[in-house]
């Protein structure tokens, strides 16, 4: 699937019927050959935007996967960079990709750090959290940031109702809900619930001041609004 080096359809099926942790352990060696890895076309504009607002000292990549976001931190942080993920398989690949970073196997809902970081980033991981977990997730991020530290992540504009992307995401989320109703353990991955209004409200409640910066390199929608923005939440 996807590329000759990518996972087979059978491998993807086995992953989808596993737990989230086990599924990513299985997929890790071929993850970067799938569309699920955040592309450089997104990482590069985020790097430029953060470089303009930096520099930062210590950085954390939350749910780092195979380390794509650690390359961003390497460019904008002057101190240490750390990746945290609960998949040992993904962390093994990340160590090969970004050997100068440090790695911790841990749960994003129970981060094993004090206020040691000036910047936390995350790419493509929020679908693994249901809305009822946002408050705890953002509270954990606040806990590991120094006062004035920032939590930054790209957030695409919602798909227009009736568009191909809209129906694709609706179909994917519906299939996942059916899968989780019929099969255990669950595999939590939903694309549609993580929307700006809810995210902004929960970040504010967790103690952040929130701004949204456009990423013009990623294009504009027909109404002139950006296709993707960079959410920057500053710890109060």
From TrEMBL:
Query: Into which EC class is this enzyme placed?
Result: transferase
**Name of the protein described by the UniProt record:** Class I SAM-dependent methyltransferase
Which keywords has UniProt assigned to this entry?
Methyltransferase, Transferase
**Record carries keyword Methyltransferase:** yes
What EC number(s) does the entry state? Answer: 2.1.-.-
Task: Tell me the domain of life.
Answer: Bacteria
